[in-house]
Amino acid sequence: MTLAMDAGALNAFLEREFPQVAGTYRVEDATTDSVTARLAVGTDHLRPGGTVSGPAMFGLADLAVYCMVLARIGPVALTVTTNASIDFMRKPAAGRDLIAECRLLKLGRTLAVADVLIRSEGQEGAVARCSMTYSIPPAT
By C-alpha distance, which of 89, 84, 93, 86 is closest to 112? Predict the structure, then answer.
């Protein structure tokens, strides 16, 4: 198992291909079987009741899995989500960044499967758990 892209390469790829996430999402670490990503929570991520919105948490999980797959296969921009399930377990803290820890479960030629745990920075319990499957396009 080799690492095709480290955290620096993944962040550079995101800035180049997805400038809309620059400054909001960041890959903090990448290994052959895990990625840690951060969502810098701002007021635009909050919902009534002073909590981070579900779509913001889902976006972080999706980005973490995407980067996990790219860390292993390289910069294949058209790798896409094909299935996702998310469980919201605790109210995240509104004033803290969210940290996603993604673990790659299976990497095949056409599909990748991963799990993500999301925590509020500085807090122990997970606020959400997500399972995702990604489709990898055929090599051209």
Answer: 84
pLDDT tens for each residue of 71-103: 999 999 899 999 999 999 999 988 899 999 999
Hey, which bits of 5-140 come out as E strands?
25-30, 34-39, 46-47, 51-52, 80-88, 98-107, 111-120, 126-135
Q: What are phi and psi of 129, to 5 degrees?
A: -130, 135
Q: Is residue 1 situated within a structural domain?
A: no
Distance of CA 75 to the CA centre of its chain: 15
Domain hosting 29: range is: 7-135
Q: How confident is the model at residue 25 (pLDDT cuts 50, 70, 90)?
A: very high
69, 107 contact by CB (below 8 A): yes
Q: Which SS3 state, helix, strand or coil, does residue 10 take?
A: helix
Question: How many whole angstroms separate alpha carbon 36 and alpha carbon 19?
Answer: 19
CB under 8 Å to 140, separation ≥6 — which residues?
Answer: none
Our count of domains for the chain comes to 1
Report d(CA 56, CA 20) in Å as an integer.
14
